[in-house]
C-alpha cells in the first residue's frame, strides 16, 4: 500500500508498515522499524556532512590568507562557490529523482571528498579556486531531505524534515569547535584531511544502511501529472512545468522573499559583528555557537509539535508574521545583547519557514519530482549568497544596519497581508 495515499497520521503509520518488502523488510513490523532506522541514519549523515562543511568554512579564510588572497579575492571565491551551488541544486535534485536518493547522497559525499582533496593540494590561489568546482554536487542536506520525503507520509513530513534543523545546529557547533581546535593545534590542513576521510565514511554509511530504492513500490511508476524521468538533468522547461502546479509558485515566492533580508544580513554579519557590535573573533565564535544551540532547541522541541497541532498554512503565516516582528527589532537594535534577544524569534521563523515550505512544495508535486523540487528549494540559499555581498554591502554602507530590519519588516508585512487575503490552491498530489 502506498504511504503517499495516507489520509491521516494513524492511517499513514499503518500504511508505512506495509511498504514494499524489497525496500523496507520482510514484514510490516520489520518494515516500519527499518524505515525509522533509515531516517535516523540519514540524520547522522546530514549532521556529519554539515560538520565538515562548517569546518572548511572556518578554515578557508586562513588558508586563503596564507596563500596571499586579499579580501576582494576571497569575496570572489565565495561568490563562485555560491554560483556553483545555485546551478547544481536543481541538477542534483533531478539526479535524485532519476537514480534514487541513496545514489544522490553518495554523489554528494563523493563530491565532498574530492572537494577536500583538492583543498589539501591547494598550494596556490588558482588551485584554491579550482577546488570549488566539486561544490556543484555538494548537497548533503537536500539529499537527506529526499530520503525523508520518500520514506514519510505527508502528515509526518513537516515534523520529520524539521528535525534536520537539529542536525544543522550540531553541524554549526561541532564544525566550528572541532575545526578551530584542529587548525590551531595541528595546522590549517588537518581539518581538511578530516573532512576528506569523513566524507568517505559517509559514503560507506549510505551504502550499508540506506536502501537503493527509498520510495514505496507503488510510487515507482510515473503518473500523468509527473514530468518526464528521462532526458537531461537540467531543463528550464521542467522547472517551469513544476512551477505550474497549483500553489507552487505562490509558496516558492514566499519562501524566497520572506527570508531574503535576513539572508543579506547574515552574509554581512562578519563585518557587522566587528564594526557595529565591536566583537572579537572569539566572541563571534561564541555567538555562532549560541545560534547553533537555538537551532537545535527550536527544531528538536518546537517545530515537530507545532506541525502536529497546526495546519501548514497557519504555520506559514505565523513564520512570516514573526519575521516581520524580527525586522522591527533589527531596525531598533543597538547592542549585541539586543541581537541575542532578537535572534530567538529569528531562528524560529527562519527554520519554520524553511521546513513548512519544503513540506508544502514536495506535497504539491508528484512523488517522481520531489527531488527536483527540493533541488529548486536548495537553490534559494546559494542565490542569496550570490547576490548578497553586493546588495548587502550597498545597504550597509549607504543606510546602516537598521536598513536590513526595515526591509525585513516591509517585505514580510506585505507577504503576510498577501497570505491572509489569498487562498493558495495547494493540492496534495497522489502517486
Automatic annotation (TrEMBL):
InterPro entries: MFS, MFS_dom, MFS_trans_sf, Tet-R_TetA/multi-R_MdtG-like. Residues 1-23 are annotated as: Disordered. Its main location: membrane. The chain crosses the membrane at residues 41-64, 76-93, 105-129, 161-182, 189-210, 252-272, 284-302, 314-332, 339-357, 399-420. Keywords: Cell membrane, Membrane, Transmembrane, Transmembrane helix. PROSITE patterns: MFS. Residues 35-426 form the Major facilitator superfamily (MFS) profile domain. CDD domains: MFS_SLC22A18. It comes from the Eukaryota. The keyword Acetylation does not apply. One of its GO terms (cellular component) is apical plasma membrane. May act as a transporter of organic cations based on a proton efflux antiport mechanism. May play a role in the transport of chloroquine and quinidine-related compounds in kidney. Plays a role in the regulation of lipid metabolism. This is Organic cation transporter-like protein 2. It comes from Vidua macroura. The gene is Slc22a18.
